Amino acid sequence: MECFSIKTLQSHIDSLQTGDWFVVDIDDTIITPQAMMFRPASPYCTFIDGIKRKSNIADIVSAWRLSRKVMLVEQEWPTIIEALKKRGVVVIALTQMHSGKFGKIPSMENWRADELRKLGITFNPFSTDTVETLIDTDEPATLFQGILFTGSHSKSDVLNGFIAKYGIPPKILFFDDRLHHVGSLGELCSKLNIIYEGYHYLATTQLPYSAEENHGAIQTQLILDGQWLEDEDVQKKQVSHG
C-alpha cells in the first residue's frame, strides 16, 4: 500500500494496541538529507547507493555522513512515535546500514542513535547501553537503543532474529521507502502468522524540489574527494567566485 503522508494513516496508527509493533525505516522515511540532489526527482538521488556498490568506499561515505545535514521527512514523526510508546506500542527502527566501525565513524550504532536523538526521535529501549549482536557474522546485524542495523543481512532476516529473541507480536505496522523491504517483511509475517500492514512510504516525493537549486554536479565530485558542502554553501562559493 502506497503512503504519501503519515497523516493519512492516523486511523491505522490509532488502531495499534499495547504489545503491537510499529517498525519503521530511517533513511528517506523518518529523515532525509537536506541537499536538493537527494530528492527523488533529482538525477543524482541514487549517487550514494551507486558508490556503495564499489570497494573501498567506507572513508568516502562515512565522511559524507558525518558532514551532511538531515531533516525530518515529515514534522509529525517525533510526536507520532512518542504517542505510540506512551500507549504501550513497541516502536523500533529497521535500517539497512553497516554495523560497528565504518570508515571514519567508530560506531555506526552510536552515530545513528545520536543523529536521530537530536531530531527528537528515540525508540523503545532495547539494548540501551550496549550494542547487542543479533546475527553474528563478519558484518553482523546489531541492535542498539531500539534500532536494528542489518549489516550484510536482509531486513526480514534481521527482524526474524529480533522476533526470535523478544517474542512474536500480534501485529506489525511497517513503513519503508523501498517496496521490496515492504514485501519481504510481509512474507515473514505471513509465515509467523503475524497480522501485517506494510506501507511503501513515498513522502519524500512530496518535498519541494528545484532543479535550479540542485548542485549535484558539484556535490557528487566533492563527495568523491571526501568533502561536502550543503546547497547554500555551494551557492555562496559560486557567488564569491562570480
How is this structure best described in words?
With 242 residues, this protein is of the alpha/beta class. Helices cover 35% and strands 17% of the residues. The strands form 2 sheets. Strands 1-10-9-2-5-8-7-6 form an 8-stranded mixed beta sheet, with helices on both faces. Strands 3-4 form a two-stranded antiparallel ribbon. It is globular.
Sum up the structure in keywords:
242 residues; alpha/beta; Rossmann fold; 8-stranded mixed sheet; 9 helices; 35% helix; 17% strand
- What is the annotated CATH architecture? 3-Layer(aba) Sandwich
Strand order of the largest sheet: 1-10-9-2-5-8-7-6
Percent of residues in beta strands: 15-25%
Low-pLDDT stretches are none
Q: Kindly identify the CATH topology.
A: Rossmann fold
Q: Main sheet, how many strands, which sense, barrel?
A: 8 strands, mixed
Number of helices: 9
Give the number of domains. 1
Number of strands: 10
Percent helix range: 25-40%
Estimate the global geometry from the Cα principal axes. globular
Strand-pairing-aware structural class: alpha/beta
Overall pLDDT metric: 96
Would you identify the CATH H-level superfamily? HAD superfamily/HAD-like
Distance between the termini: 48 Å
CATH top level class name:
Alpha Beta
Cα-based radius of gyration, to the nearest Å: 18 Å
The secondary-structure element order is EHEEHHEHEHEEEHEHEHH
